[in-house]
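Our consortium's second objective concerns turning raw sequence data into structural hypotheses that experimental partners can test. To show how far this objective has progressed, the report includes one record in full. It was chosen at random from the queue rather than selected for favorable results. The single chain below, 317 residues long, was entered without modification.
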Amino acid sequence: MNVSSDVKIMAEEVFVRFGNVVALDHFSAKVPQGVVGLLGPNGAGKSTFIKVALGLLEAQEGKITIDGLNPQLEPVLLRDKIGYMPEDECLIQNQNAFELLSYMAQLSGLLPEEATKRSHAVLDFIGFGEERYREISTYSTGMKQQIKLAQSIVHDPPILLFDEPTSGMDPVAKEEMLSLIGDLGKSKKTILICSHLLHEVERVSDHVLIINQGRLIRAGALDQVLKHGENRYKLEIRGASDSNKAFVDDLDQFCEVLDVKYIGRKLTVVVKGVAETKEYFGLAKQHDVQIRSYVPDRLSLEDFFIQAFEEEERNVG
């Protein structure tokens, strides 16, 4: 993976096994500065990677370094550099948000007066007003997720690890969370987001890592990744079903057919390749169908994700 900025997290041939299950299979990756999406299906090894990076798990082989520090050998030095937002419940329910953040700030080495200032500043950042003095047990899921984010940044670490940060949140709360992550991403921090929600990661990330069965299968800057979608076009066709099918069957003489969807007499086709418009319309006339729309089509992160998995399966097969 070619990156222009400094590598902040590096994994080298990391191997982790739980009994007969291999969670990380000689996993190697470089995480640069910026917002980085760590993507993969459930059970792919994303959370295991984060736990090894935090020093909560020890790899049987290989190593991970964070800003040059080994989490197994230098945990105290590393603690000041990392903020962690876990997926699982981790909040002290009978404390209020201010008490929890102040406590977490002091655990991270801040003096009480500074911890108080930082806690209020972070609570202002996430949009908490008087509710900061309510018990956490009374909070909604979205509010609890925001407090989990707040405790990870209260000591202002340069590296943040977020595990499924929008888990369990309603659409409005998700928007607020993504906005907060986007604001954090404008600073010179390294933010690794572990998620399976591709459209959310696409909104806030600068880079992506795709992991499957404990192995890195794709990595790169997001804008470069999505360039794989250049020369894609979407055609909307209307005609008899037999005519539509014949039209699609003959399209490959001009271009690569990427996706086909039939809905009654309507047909949507996504193609890749440069072709003269007259060729498409000539073929449509030949098969007695109408081209209702012919527009550029942008590759999404979900499209790239699916392509990566399909190619991986072909290579393994």
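The partners drew two points from this record. The first strand starts at residue 7 and ends at 18. Residues 32 and 229 are 24 Å apart (CA to CA). Both points have been shared with the crystallography group to help prioritize constructs.
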